[in-house]
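Appendix B, example 12.
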Amino acid sequence: MIFHNKTIGIDTKALLSTLWIFILFNIIFRDIHEFVKPGFIEEVMTGTVNGVQINEPLLLLGGIMAEIPISMVLLSRILKYKVNRWANIITGALMITFVINNGVKDLDDIFFASIEILSLSLIIWIACKWHNSYDVR
């Protein structure tokens, strides 16, 4: 199957952007979901979570990790074909690495990480198969 500018009746740029939004919702809900775990808020208040000291460099890294999919929602819509395609492939692979290295601690983490990895893999697959006979904006 060759992916042209439209896939299954959906513009490829719109599809990629929508998948990034889907991933963002999963990341956000995964983080929010942790707050209902007994003892989590108390652990956060101590400044150490799962044995990791919360500090400025760690918060900056978290902000960067969050900003990547946020940026891809917009960039998937506005970048030209060739740059868009490679940005989605590289960023998808980078985000899979982040998800895996973030670790899974319990069943809900496994669930959300699996959904995120599958979605990111789909982004990479769509971008790899995406062929554009003309360069549209």
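The radius of gyration is 17 Å. Residues 26 and 115 are 8 Å apart (CA to CA).
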